[in-house]
């Protein structure tokens, strides 16, 4: 005499649902990670950084660079917020 579990396992709908769940978990494990990791902080002299590097450095520290800021303003803000070198 078949049990409700036996009937559920023989159902096409249950197999399709289970397969969909497995597929969704696999897709999440592949694409749910950082597929395109963030670029690291720029290094070196800020005077030689590009505009995008200056903006990225400020944004990483929640200093909210304005799109209207000039390169000189961005550079001034970066220098003002950089840590003093250890002696």
Automatic annotation (TrEMBL):
Organism of origin: Hyaloscypha bicolor E
The protein's name in its UniProt record: STE24 endopeptidase
Keyword line: Membrane, Transmembrane, Transmembrane helix
Bilayer-crossing regions: 14-31
């Amino acid at each position: 005499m078949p049990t409700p579990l036996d009937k559920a396992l023989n159902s096409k709908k249950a197999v399709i649902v289970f397969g969909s769940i497995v597929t969704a978990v696999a897709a999440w494990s592949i694409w749910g990670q950082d597929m395109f990791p963030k670029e690291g902080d720029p290094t070196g002299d800020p005077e030689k950084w590009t505009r995008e590097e200056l903006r990225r450095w400020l944004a990483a520290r929640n200093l909210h660079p304005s799109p209207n800021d000039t390169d000189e303003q961005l550079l001034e803000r970066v220098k003002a917020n950089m840590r003093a070198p250890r002696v």
